[in-house]
Amino acid sequence: MSLPKKLRAWRTALGVTQEQGAALLGISVHTLISWETGRRQPPFFAWDRQRLLAKLRKDMGTAP
């Protein structure tokens, strides 16, 4: 699953709005919208991407 789809799935699974999801990630709502639509990719260093994906898995209850 692509990162945009993972982000949207994470947010909808938690039942939060884009505004609330952005706040949970510590980013602006405009940034989250851009990421969810695939218009922009997060400019992560490798550890930032791993941290975000770990948070998504933890919040969705799929963490190891």
Topology of this protein?
Elements: H1 3-14, H2 18-25, H3 29-37, H4 46-59
Helix pairs in contact: 1-3, 2-3
Overall pLDDT score: 81
CATH topology: 434 Repressor (Amino-terminal Domain)
In one word, what is the shape? globular
Please, how many domains? 1
The level of helicity is: 55-70%
**Main sheet overview:** none
| Separate helix tally | 4
pLDDT under 50 segments (min length 5)? none
Brief descriptors of the model:
mainly alpha; 64 residues; globular; 434 Repressor (Amino-terminal Domain); 4 helices; 67% helix; single chain
Commentary on this structure:
With 64 residues, this protein is an all-alpha fold. The chain has a single domain, classed as 434 Repressor (Amino-terminal Domain). The chain is 67% helix and 0% strand. The protein is built from 4 helices and no strands. Helix 1 (3-14) packs across helix 3 (29-37) and helix 2 crosses helix 3 (29-37). It is globular, with a radius of gyration of 11 Å. The two termini are 18 Å apart. The model has no long low-confidence stretch (mean pLDDT 81).
